[in-house]
Design a protein that fits this description.
- The chain has two domains: about 5-125, no CATH class; about 130-345, Rossmann fold (3-Layer(aba) Sandwich).
- The chain contains twelve helices and 13 strands.
- The protein has helices at about 15-25, 85-95, 125-135, 160-170, 200-205, 235-240, 260-270, 280-285, 305-320, 325-330, 335-345, 345-365; strands at about 10, 35, 45-55, 70-75, 80, 100-105, 110, 120, 145-155, 175-180, 190, 245-250, 270-275.
- It has a six-stranded parallel sheet, with helices on one face. Strands 11-10-9-12-13 form a five-stranded mixed sheet, with helices on both faces. Strands 5-7 form a two-stranded parallel sheet.
- The longest helix has 18 residues, at about 345-365.
- The model has no long low-confidence stretch (mean pLDDT about 90).
Length: about 375
């Protein structure tokens, strides 16, 4: 029996969001393949391709599962690929005992050299997730707002502490909604008092202890949210309605091009933002089809190698926005904001991009 007549079985063991989306929009991500879920039972005389949700980072304990009988292993993560590649390869081989693997991820960290033909880092999972689970009005009314910025910074990290200190130094504390949490005994604990008036009532009823926040707080699911499925995947609509701009402090402060729901929520809700993260992250955002705001602020900060110099340059743009005619700026970039919202809602485009990467690997897989 030649390969063309053999059945290809895709084992989706973790209910991958992207496969769920293919059903929602009737998109054939794996042509002529049978997709199965549940426990893996390698079927003889068939080509078995296993999608394994696997996120490895420095310090993580490697999982152990013998998948040596799979013809191809797709190491999938909504997160990122952590380098160097030699370490990632060794840990994957140790975990699954199968060198025939490719990688699908939403970004990379400390990964300078790697086999680009087998590593895909443009999944943009968090755009797909936010577009799928959050729903807002496509037309965002412009009106006067009491605050300038939302700075929902999250767990204390160097770039977030920098933003917090600069907001205070530049007398922008009272003009911003700020939330930053300690990581254990480290960092700063601060929360703008009137944030509680704008929180989803369900979040308030959950009675989260802001003085003892768990590291995984963003992944905590809270049922009954008015717009989303968890703390991270929920639009803070009332906060956005009352502040002009967002200060985005992404997960990784440097050496990464990975971005998450922190950024994609701004795409969906048509917000102007200033970005604090790694060098080149705005460039990556644009490569994925979104547009940023170099027409109204100086985004050359994205090209600065030194972390603190990059953040200093970025904060100069925060100050610039604080002194601007806010209604005028939003009208000036209205087409950019409209474009970003349409882009994030385009699930088919992201799936098509993934399909182009996967197709040759699927076709070339052998028994």
């Amino acid at each position: 029996m030649d390969k063309q007549n053999k059945k290809i079985v895709i084992w989706d063991t973790n209910n991958c969001l992207e496969i769920k989306l293919t059903k929602n929009i009737n998109f054939d991500l794996f042509p002529n393949c049978e997709i199965k879920s549940g426990p893996i039972v390698i079927e003889k005389n068939k080509i078995n391709i296993v999608i394994k949700d696997w996120f490895f980072w420095a310090g993580a304990t490697a999982t152990k599962e013998d998948l040596s009988s799979a013809n191809l292993l797709i190491c999938y993560t909504r997160e990122l690929v952590t380098g160097p590649w030699e370490n990632y390869y060794k840990e994957c081989l140790k975990s699954f005992n199968n060198p025939n693997f490719i990688v699908v991820a939403s970004g990379k960290l400390n990964l300078k050299e790697y086999p680009q033909d087998r590593v895909y880092t443009d999944l943009d999972h968090f755009s797909s997730l936010i577009a799928d689970c959050c729903h807002i009005e496509k037309e965002v009314a412009l009106k006067e707002k009491p605050k300038l910025f939302d700075a929902l910074l999250g767990i204390s990290k160097p770039h977030r502490l920098f933003v917090f200190e600069q907001l205070i130094k530049n007398n922008l504390e009272s003009k911003s909604y700020i939330n930053i949490w300690k990581k254990g005994a480290e960092g700063i604990q601060y929360r703008t008092k009137d944030l509680d008036m704008l929180e989803d009532p369900v979040v308030l009823n959950a009675k989260i202890d802001h003085n003892n926040v768990p590291v995984n707080i963003s992944s905590i699911n809270i049922t009954g949210l008015s717009n989303g499925i968890g703390l991270s995947c929920s639009i803070p609509k009332k906060i956005y309605d009352n502040a002009w701009y967002s200060i985005i402090s992404e997960t990784n402060p440097s050496k990464s091009d990975f971005f998450t729901e922190k950024t994609t929520k701004c795409f969906l809700t048509k917000r102007i933002f200033v970005f604090f993260g790694g060098k080149g992250q705005l460039k990556k955002i644009r490569e994925l089809g979104y547009k940023t705001f170099n027409d109204i602020i100086d985004e050359s900060y994205d090209e600065i190698e030194n972390d603190y110099q990059r953040w200093e340059k970025a904060f100069e743009q925060v100050i610039k926005l604080s002194k601007a005619d806010h209604l005028k700026l939003y009208k000036k970039v209205s087409k950019i904001l409209e474009h970003n919202q349409k882009e994030i809602l385009n699930q088919k485009k992201r799936l098509q991009r993934l399909k182009i990467f996967l197709d040759p690997h699927i076709k070339n897989t052998k028994n």
